[in-house]
Amino acid sequence: MEDGAVKVNLVPANAPVLRERVLTFKANARVYDLHRMLRERLKLETLVLIVETCFAPTLDQELGDLAKNFGRNGTLHITYGPQAVFG
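Structure for Ubiquitin-like protein ATG12, as requested:
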């Protein structure tokens, strides 16, 4: 993978499964960019993103920063769904 790129593994939670579950973004792309793209592709009004099944990032956070701090094996794992899922 090129420098300045972030590999994002998208995991559905009570949401439609994407054809491509692993996408690559520029490191300076924000969570907002991913959120907007997913809402458009999935045609959902409400969408919650959870990083590493632990927390919901703010929309202004950069994907590169999240990957550096919370990624595993070079990939940032994000669960998405229409509502927060606990338990």
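The beta strands are 5-12, 22-26, 48-51, 75-81.
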